[in-house]
Design brief:
Shape: extended
CATH class of the domain at 1-124: Mainly Alpha
Structural class: mainly alpha
CATH architecture of the domain at 1-124: Alpha Horseshoe
Strand content: under 5%
CATH superfamily of the domain at 1-124: Leucine-rich Repeat Variant
Radius of gyration: 30 Å
CATH topology of the domain at 1-124: Leucine-rich Repeat Variant
Number of helices: 28
Length: 445
């Protein structure tokens, strides 16, 4: 039986109340493609809401423009919010023609229909900007709030001044959304209103205000955020506050972030350590060093602080990172230690990475090689010195040749030629150097 013949059977199967089965039927209809469009358009008028909802989902995924008019009509006359939701999402295919009905949905009684309209309007983008700006002056507060949120997601600068005018709106949700939208667009006028939002209860909008303050990076937000860090009992809210303080990067946050190392939540402690790593002051580095060496800190916290210290190229992390690379029982930890050591142009780092090249764990050896390659010319000097020191094994010297070949600079090629020409060198080492030189020559040609 061909796809077109299957379509009526599949549409009838949409009556099921089993959500998984319903999804599978919709997927089959989508696979039927253009053959299913006309029957699905007719199914938008079916008496069964499951059929109408499934038809809307399938038409939205197929994306055929022939369905647009029927989808808009059904959306404007559909009494069931569970059907209006997929109808809203299906209008992403409508472009400018879908903007007006979607703006109408910003005042829908169902919050998920309103949310869907905001997201789809944002996806439509440019063609929706002018109608959405007009909607900022709508007498209905939910329409103004939804239009502000959609404009913030789009990020078009034409909306900046109208959104700024909305910061004094009498409706709290409206000016809240306007503040978040302006903040996402980088306008400093949003800072004070965003700080005011933080005086309210924790909500999705609250967390977006915190994140937006972090993105803006305005130091006016630092003290209010530090106050929240100590006062906020909601774990998720503290996580967002810590992240924002890290992004702003003000030295005033160091003490508060360090205090969060006493928090019982591992997530909070990990986020505080990461935030300290974002603050560009020696005081933050000192705090990370203290954490990495603190016997009372957990093993996980000490490692996290060590990684952040190394990521900032602080040489105090070298010994600890070397121990992790060569001795830690967890492969993931050793791999990440190699990655961080690759950022440190130091003979001790190069020596540790070379030793890790012949580790019995392929993932560790592979990352150690990549780290040496990333060091580039700096690694060539260290590798050449290690080769000349003597006492290295044949396997060591073969890895040196391979690493030099991967680095591939002129200086690396000079060292390889020297290794290949040494009569007293082991045949396997010379062969590795010659092979690396051949591959370099092939790459250049």
């Amino acid at each position: 039986m061909n796809a077109a013949a299957n379509v009526p059977i599949l549409i009838a199967a949409l009556r099921t109340d089993d959500r998984r089965a319903h999804t599978l039927v919709v997927d089959d209809l989508v696979r039927a493609g253009v053959d299913a469009v006309e029957p699905l358009i007719a199914a938008l008028d079916d008496a069964n809401p499951n059929v109408r909802a499934g038809a809307a989902r399938a038409l939205g995924k197929i994306g055929d423009q022939r369905a647009l008019g029927a989808l808009i009509f059904r959306l404007r006359h559909e009494p069931d919010p569970e059907v209006r939701k997929p109808l809203v999402w299906a209008l992403h295919l409508g472009g400018e023609r879908a903007v007006a009905p979607l703006i109408e949905c910003l005042s829908d009684a169902d919050e998920w229909v309103r949310f869907g309209a905001v997201v789809v309007l944002a996806k439509i983008g440019g063609p929706a900007v002018v109608p959405l700006v007009r909607a900022l002056y709508d007498p209905n507060p939910p329409v103004r709030a939804g239009a502000a949120e959609a404009l913030g997601r789009i990020g078009d600068q034409r909306a900046v001044e109208p959104l700024a005018n909305l910061l004094h709106d009498a409706d709290a949700e409206t000016w809240h959304q306007a503040a978040v939208a302006l903040g996402r667009m980088g306008d400093a006028r949003a800072v004070r209103p965003l700080i005011n939002i933080l005086q309210g209860p924790v909500s999705d909008l609250y967390t977006r205000a915190v994140k937006t303050l972090g993105q803006l990076g305005d130091v006016r937000a630092v003290d209010p955020l530090i106050d929240l860090l100590y006062a906020q009992t909601d774990r998720w809210a503290r996580l967002f506050v810590i992240e924002a303080l890290g992004k702003i990067g003000d030295i005033r946050a160091v003490e508060g972030l360090t205090d969060m190392l006493d928090d019982p939540s591992q997530d909070v402690r990990a986020r505080a350590i990461a935030a300290l790593g974002e603050i560009p002051y020696s005081l933050a580095l000192d705090a990370l060093h203290a954490i990495s060496a603190a016997p009372a800190a957990t093993r996980t916290d000490r490692q996290a602080a060590l990684f952040e210290l190394g990521r900032r190229r602080d040489k105090r992390a070298l010994d600890g990172l070397t121990d992790l690379l060569l001795e830690d029982p967890f492969v993931e930890t050793r791999v990440y230690a190699a990655l961080i050591l690759g950022e440190l142009d130091d003979p001790r780092a190069t020596s540790a990475l070379l030793e890790a090249l012949y580790a019995d764990v392929p993932e560790v050896a592979s990352q150690a090689l990549r780290a040496l390659v990333k060091l580039g010319t700096g690694a060539v000097v260290h590798l050449a010195a290690l080769y000349e020191q003597g006492g290295t094994t044949v396997e060591h010297r073969m890895w040196i040749a391979r690493a030099l070949g991967e680095i591939g600079t002129a200086a690396a090629a000079d060292v390889l030629r020297d290794i290949a020409s040494r009569r007293g060198e082991h045949a396997r080492v010379r062969a590795a150097a010659i092979d690396a030189l051949r591959r370099l020559d092939d790459t250049r040609h």
